[in-house]
Amino acid sequence: MGLRSSDMMSLTLSLALVSVVGAKESFNTTVFVPENARVGTVVAHHNTSLQLPRTYRLLDGNAYGRFGIAESQGVVEVANPLDYQIQSTYQLQILIDNGRNFTENTIVWNLTVHLLDVSRYPPYYNKTCETPETSSGIGLTRLVEFTDFFVHLSATIGYTFKDSSDIVNYKKRKVYFSFEDDSCEVNFTIGVSHDKDVAYMNYLMKADYRRLTQYSEDGKNKLSLFVVLQDYYALLDAGRIDPTWITGFNTYRYFILVSLGTLKTGTPVAFKRSVANFMAPSPYGESNLTAQITFKLAGCPHGKYGAYCDKNCTCKNDARCHGFNGACLCAPGWKGVSCDIPTPAVAIDVRPEGNMYITGNVSLQCRPVHINASSMTWWFRASRNNSSKVFIQTSRNFSISPILPETNGVYTCEATTSDGQTLERNYVLDVMECPSGLHGERCDRPCDCLHNVGCDRWAGCICEAGWTGPTCNMSCPSGTFGTNCKKLCRCENGAECNPFNGTCICPPDLTGEYCEGKQSSPFHTTHDTLQYFTLLLFILPVVIVAVVVRRRRKFLKEQRQQPVHEELQLVEVNQELNMADTLVPWERDPQYLTLGNLVGVGTFGHVVEGTLELPGELPVRVAVKTVNAKDNSGYVQADFNREMDILIYLYDRSLHMKEDEKVMHPNIIQLYGVVTLSDPKRIILEFAPHGDLQMYLKRLRDDINAVNWATLLGFAVGVSKALQELERVTIVHRDVAARNVVITDGMVAKLADFGLARDVYTNTAYEHTDHHGRDELLPLKWMALESIRDGIYSCQSDVWSFGVMLWEIASLGEEPRYPGPFRPNCCQMVNMLRQGKRMEKPEQCSIDLYRLMCQCWYDAPDHRPTAAQLEVRLGDLVEDANNRVPANDVVVFEWETTL
């Protein structure tokens, strides 16, 4: 056959069947070729014992020119990239001539080529880490850039070392990148050979500092570093080193394996680590170290990909080439590995291509590709409601001028051919920003901001600390300071307060941080002290009695008005007083806990998967919530402790039994233990293999027709049962939302509080607010009117939040959106809710389900359904869900509004 072994191709030839048909001979050959065979790979070779000149021609079966044949040699090769999904078998017909003429003594070679499906081929184009194209520059080009690299070491002996050079010095170190393109993960291995580097590695190995884990400053990436002592073949098998490194066994003494996690397009990832009072190698001794580095996807020049942008892309016809693996993103009208196979399609060209703003213009051009369109029609569907498509016009071009909030939506170009075939393409217009210098819902109000501050579409001028007013033209009123002048000064004795940072400016006769003390003369000290002591003897008993009476009256009044909320506070206080005794049965030794993959992470803590294996018991898969030991924020520790207390309290008050043992309510997350006697503090919880409800809903969006609404409403039934249990033991959850519901084994929905309550979640869900003198992050869009306005929480405020969770389910995990600002503050939310404004019905939501949501959002808490009523109503909806047809009726509700 004469095949090249380097092609690594599996090839099988069948028995040649020779026949005589008139004056022509024919024979058949069958071969098997992997679909990832490179261009130039030999597929088959016609051998003959006769030394006669021959000519070969491909007559038929070579769709889209996938194969080629040398005219005089009889060698069939791969001419263009193959793809099993597009065509798995080729029937090639090749005419062989003896050199005299093609009418006599010709031979027909019937070559059947079967493609073999290859795993993970073609390469996947992942838009999460889509790499930009860069201009060809001078010097070494890398797909991933290392920037802001800095190391600062200071030792007690007085030595200081600073290095801000590139981490990759090619005279000292070699670097090999490996990419997980399906998940956008970036890993690289550093080969250490320089004497100075080797000395550092020796010290790290002896001091058992071989592993390092560091979270990025935004908490979304984890850098893992592992030092390995010469393990060439194991690293080669794992794809972590360059195969050429194997030739120099003694070149590299150590390898540093680095994992960066997922890198996203246009999002640099910064890491910073400070270590105080650690023992550095001799002679430095006790030292302090600070190191930082930033990684970002820099991209490759056009037509290149790979870690060093040294590989050639095969993408054609204006396709984009992915920098990780060379995968091609085809333009409309093209398909195949290299986007070189035409296919009928419709494209939409958009002008302008850059940023668009409200009050601006946009032009859309419908362009048929590889089809003859007899007509082209434009349709529109608004994005803010559940309306059907609306006819716009029949034409190729369509312009929107001006762009307004109501013009946002889905624009569809529908092309029809003369034979009745219809193709369409969608374009989503979602313009949310105002042009520079304008704000307002329709961007029709000038900003006129002073001090060069920014201007928000909804809020207007974003004043710097110390300034307020529509254009930031006024300093903070007396007694206030900070951003938006929301913070109250604590200066005493009439002292002035700095409007920018709240620093008290004391007059000459006052002293102290808050100017609370007077500068006293030594001649008056004894006299003043005697006066104050005498006055205190008379006033103190009166003050004590007054405080006791006032607190007693306030306690009785609040007990009558808010029994559930007050009992919750008493539970928390009692738990704090008896924490040590309460935690004893739940305390777990960390040595029985094995930690695994990261599940979620936030600024002050994270959740990882783990295994708990207590002596004499079977191992249990668990989720481990951890608060950072270095975080000293009072409210973070308080939230963490409160969650431990409430989970233990729920277990103690539970009425549920399983095999003669008490268990948690079946719709509340199970507690397995806590770690409080050592740092870091941990809560060990039941593991939820299906994740939280919010992420579960988002995964369903890819195939809306496959959504099982009965299952989703069944999750809501489970949460309603959990709320009944909380009501029974007089506890208020205060954060009922899809993100706080987990789906465990058996597809059971359980109420939880993953993510350290108000800390882990992004600011789209939680907003800063100063509640009762304490700066908190609150889930405003999920909160009841009375909770935002008055700070009152009850079981009925949980019902309001439950209604928002139903909206999340009906919208498949969309973020709740009220009419008006996308991220309203407290005042804006209160005003909207008092005016009767509520969220609109999601597109796939039934009228009955939306009506139930709206009842959860009544102003008066007593008018909202109870958790038990919700279970009954939802049970009825579950029975009807499979037969439900989504309704697009217009429903008008009259809100109960308290002005």
Automatic annotation (TrEMBL):
Transmembrane segments: 530-549
Membrane topology: Single-pass type I membrane protein
Molecular functions per Gene Ontology: ATP binding; calcium ion binding; transmembrane receptor protein tyrosine kinase activity
PROSITE patterns per the UniProt record, alphabetical: CADHERIN_2, EGF_1, EGF_2, IG_LIKE, PROTEIN_KINASE_ATP, PROTEIN_KINASE_DOM, PROTEIN_KINASE_TYR
UniProt domain Protein kinase: residue ranges: 593-874
Domain Cadherin: 25-125
Cleaved signal peptide residues: 1-23
A Gene Ontology term for the protein's cellular component: membrane
Residues that, per the record, bind ATP: K625
EC number: 2.7.10.1
Subcellular location: Membrane
GO biological process, one term: homophilic cell adhesion via plasma membrane adhesion molecules
InterPro entries according to UniProt: Cadherin-like_dom, Cadherin-like_sf, EGF, Ig-like_dom, Ig-like_dom_sf, Ig-like_fold, Kinase-like_dom_sf, Prot_kinase_dom
Annotated keywords: ATP-binding, Calcium, Disulfide bond, EGF-like domain, Glycoprotein, Kinase, Membrane, Nucleotide-binding, Phosphoprotein, Receptor, Repeat, Signal, Transferase, Transmembrane, Transmembrane helix, Tyrosine-protein kinase
Location (main, coarse): membrane
Annotated CDD domains: Cadherin_repeat (cd11304), PTKc (cd00192)
Ig-like domain span: 344-424
Protein's name in the database: receptor protein-tyrosine kinase
